[in-house]
Model the fold of this input.
Amino acid sequence: MDKKTVLIAGGAFLLGAVSVGCVAGIHARYSTGHQWGMMGDRNDERAFGNRFADGDTNADRDVANQNTHGMMGSSDTSMGMDGMHDMHMMVASEREFLQEMIPHHEEAVATAKEVVARGGSTPDIKTLAENIITAQEKEITDMKTWFKNWYGTDYVADGKYQPMMRPLTDLSGAALDKVFLTDMIIHHRGALMMANSVSSHIEHPEMTTLVGNIKTTQSAEITEMQNLLKTLQ
Done:
């Protein structure tokens, strides 16, 4: 084998090694950069929630970007929320919307009930929690009824939903309030993303009304929660 052939073969080997290394690096970045939602690392979630609470307008853009590019291997965990559960916040049919929104609402209701039961919250935060319970329990009932009527079977959770809110068990007073408000702001943002994504797939007038109510009510509650957070800081 002459020297030229050896050089060409060596170059090809090095190029292949670099390519494999790059692919492995991208995979590692994706695997480690999007794990808090599954592994319980809440530091990024807290920072991201505070950006919403502080009125950071770039936070909205980052949510959209993370959902658009979350499967591309970004290692920017400062966006938090695992891209708002990536595609779980985006739906392409009414059925998928109901399948995702019912457990999403159920988590919000359960967390709000815990805040009301635990005490230590301000009257305004208790009222907010009670309003969330009232509105979303009705919407859960409606969505389960529609699911049965439209698809001929009872709604059954498919187990894919990943909790978005931190446990409140070890918290009380202002600390509980801050975590509740911070997490619920992000949770509401997820609902708005789903509502927006289903808008072009609506087939029933009931869904039009529900989506409109979610957008109006939860947008207003986000503003209210941002203001309440400022009173706690």
